[in-house]
Amino acid sequence: MPKKKFEKKIRIRLKGFDKGLLDHSARDITETAKRTGAMVVGPIPLPTSRERYTVLRSPHVDRKSREQFELITYNRLIEILDPPAKTLDALKGLALSCGVDIKLKI
Fold it and tell me: Where in the sequence is the domain holding 16, given as residue range(s)?
């Protein structure tokens, strides 16, 4: 069975350090898009990135004594297929959480 080719597609990529805020924002976006009649795929969890930083605890001696910090970035992807015009207007008026970075690709 051949796949259907969609003319318009909005791809929304979400990034954040807090998993709960990210999932809540993704749920708000999908509910808003479904309410306007668009077909929504996702949220799709993308691989998380982990950055580890190692610092010395003491400024002079004790080189073996170190402390490690970790920065975890969570990612989600939402695709909106063949959106009507009111979907974009509804997404523009949506107020989302502060700890979430959003990138739209149309």
Answer: 9-56+64-105
**Taking every pair of C-alpha atoms in the chain, what is the biggest distance, in angstroms?**
68
Q: Are 24 and 98 in contact (CB under 8 A)?
A: no
Q: At what angle do helices 85-92 and 19-35 cross, to 10 degrees?
A: 140
Give me the chain's average pLDDT, please.
87
Q: Shortest CA distance to 50 belongs to which of 73, 21, 69? A: 73
The CATH number assigned to the domain holding 87 equals 3.30.70.600
**What's the pTM?**
0.78
Residue 23: name the closest of 32, 34, 14 by CA: 14
Q: Which residues pair with 87 in a beta bridge?
A: none
Q: How far apart are CA 85 and CA 21, in angstroms?
A: 27
Q: Each residue of 27-38: pLDDT tens digit?
A: 998 998 888 888
- The amino acid present at 5, given as its one-letter code, is K
What are the structure tokens assigned to 91, written together? Answer: 């997404």
